[in-house]
Amino acid sequence: MRRLLTALMLYCTWAQAEQPVLRFSVAESWSMPLVRVVDDQPVEGLLFDLMQALAREAEVRPQYHVLARLRLQQAMEDGDIDVRCYVSTRWFNDRPGNFVWSIPLIAQRDVLVGRPGDTQPVVAAQLPTQAIGTVLGYAYDTLEPLFDQGRLLREDSRSQQLALQKLQAGRYQHAVSNELSLRWFNQQVPPGQRLTQQAVLEEQALGCLVRNDPAVPTQRLLRALVRMKESGQIDRIVQRYGAADYTAAGAR
After folding, report:
1. Which of 73, 147, 152, 217 is deepest in the core (most CB within 10 A)?
2. 3-state DSSP helix/strand/coil % of the chain, to nearest 5
3. Residue 149: partners with Cβ closer than 8 Å, 6 or more residues away
4. Three-state DSSP class for 147?
5. Domains of the chain
6. What is the pTM of this model?
7. Strand 61-67 vs strand 83-87: parallel, antiparallel, or unpaired?
8. Are 86 and 34 in contact (CB under 8 A)?
9. Residue 11, number of CB atoms within 10 A of its CB
């Protein structure tokens, strides 16, 4: 029995060593429910669960690189990362060189958020000149013309959670958030302190980019994502973080 256990342990060690190492990017601006980072490594969250599941499905060993959002593009160009998830085709003017798009996986709705008690729907284009809470390095297509005209002013934070915390503290009257992060934030505070959704700004489908390189099992990863989407595994991961209807655009 002891010899059998030793043999099994040796086999598992060998099998793991044979799996290719894939470098996944993690944006440091992400916060829960997308990801929680401890000591420069992700430990939980929707995207962490998704990337872990993808690594298991494709039989690769994940290695996580936490980067500032503004450094992600350069890391892709330099070949420092192999997989970048939670991205939209609309965020790029041209297809990133040497990377292949996955199918759409998850929906993201960007919403205009107001302070507790501000329940009246608003139209962003009709807001008076004011600062709007935003996240450093994020582009907001619907609001860009208003930023360019100076009718709205960006007040950047390093993460989505920090932008919402500043709104709750009264630093500004409105902020932009993805709907999933807003729901998560409101679950952590008393009812009277919950922020309000005042308008949907845009909705887009997000997927992953996989480096197209002989050293990367590109097609294996892309096929794994198709299986995960078709089996409902990705939807179940999203629902685990409190958003039962959040994959609609991804399904489309």
Report:
1. 152
2. 40, 30, 35
3. none
4. helix
5. 22-107+204-251 (3.40.190.10), 109-202 (3.40.190.10)
6. 0.81
7. unpaired
8. yes
9. 10
